[in-house]
Amino acid sequence: MKARIFIDGEAGTTGLQIHSQLRLREDIELLELTHADRKDPLKRSQALNECDVAILCLPDEAAREAVSFVRNPGVRILDASSAHRSSAGWVYGMPELTSGQAVLIAQANRVTNPGCYPTGAIAVLRPLTESGIVPRDYPVNVHAISGYSGSGRSLIEAYEDPAHPEPSTAAFRGYGLSLKHKHVPEMQKQSLLAYPPLFTPSYGKYRQGIVLYVPLHCRLLKLGTTAKNIHDALSDFYAASEYINVVSNEQAMQVTQLDPEYLNATNHLDIYVFSNEASGQILLAAVFDNLGKGASGAAIQNLNIMLGK
C-alpha cells in the first residue's frame, strides 16, 4: 500500500524541491490541494488528517497552526520549519547526530528537520564534544556563507525577478549582527555546548550552497589534541554514513579555495580539517547545499527512514 504524503506549503522553496523529488515515486501517493484550497483551513485540515505523513514547509507560526489541525493519531509529522526544533516530544531529524538517532526517527510520530546552518555546525562539532576532544565550554565561533535562497522567497525574487520593485545585486551581505539568530539555540543544544556559539551568517550573490567554518585553537582543546586526532575522530564517526564524508588529509592539503556550490542538488555534506601546526590553529569546514542536505534533501532522508525505506 502506498504511503500517503501531504506537503503543507508545497509552493515554497523547500516544498517545491520536496515535491519534485517525490512526485515520480511509485511507493508514494501525494495528496495535493489546488491553489485556492491551500488557503482554506478546512481543506488543509482535511488533507492533514487523511495523510500518513505530513511534511510542513511553512513559516513557523503556520507550522504550529498545522500541527494544531491534526486530530488523527495515526498522522506522523515531519516539520521542515524551525518551529519545533527545541520542543519536547519532537525527535531531532539528523540521522547522523549520534548512535541510535536514526532508530528514534524511524519510530517517531513528530520529527523536526534541522536548520541549514546548524546542519553544518553540528556535523563538525557533535562528534568532538561528545567524545570530549572539544570541551563543552569551548568558546565556539561559527562563520557561514550561504546562497541567497537561504533567506527565503523574498530575497530570491529580489535577485532573480527583473521586474522586482527593489531588486538586489549585492555581492555579499553579513547579517545576524544582534547575535540573536534563531539557529543559535539549536546549534548549542545539538552540539552539546555549554554556552551559545558566536554565529556570524552571511549570504553571497549565488543561489544556493553553504561553506561553514568553525576555528579551533589547540591550546584550548584536550591536552595533546592535534588536527590528525580530530580528523581521525570525525572519520571514525562518519565511517558508515551515506551522506556525510570527511575529506582525506591528502585531499584537503591540495585545497586552496572552497566552492560553496559543488554539492548543490545533492544530500551530501563534506567535512574538511585544515591546520597550521606552527600556530596551533585548526579550521573545520563543511560544504553542503542549503536547499539539499540543509532542507529538502534532509527531509526526504528523514521521510525514507520514517517509512522504513
Structure, explained:
By secondary structure, this protein is of the alpha/beta class. It contains 10 helices and 13 strands. The strands form 2 sheets. Strands 8-9-7-10-13-12-11 form a 7-stranded mixed beta sheet. Strands 2-1-3-4-6-5 form a 6-stranded parallel beta sheet, sandwiched between helices. Strand 5, helix 4 and strand 6 form a beta-alpha-beta unit. Helix 5 packs parallel to helix 7. The longest helix is centred in the middle third of the chain and has 16 residues. The protein is globular and about 65 Å long.
User: Percent of residues in beta strands?
Assistant: 15-25%
Main β-sheet description:
7 strands, mixed
Mean pLDDT: 95
Morphology: globular
Number of helices: 10
End-to-end Cα distance? 14 Å
Q: Which residue ranges are poorly predicted, with pLDDT under 50 across at least 5 consecutive positions?
A: none
Short synopsis of the structure:
The protein has about 300 residues and is α/β, with parallel strands linked by helices. It is built from ten helices and 13 strands. Helix 1 (about 15-20) packs across helix 10 and helix 5 (about 115-130) packs parallel to helix 7.
Q: Key terms for this structure?
A:
seven-stranded mixed β-sheet; 22% strand; alpha/beta; 309 residues; six-stranded parallel β-sheet
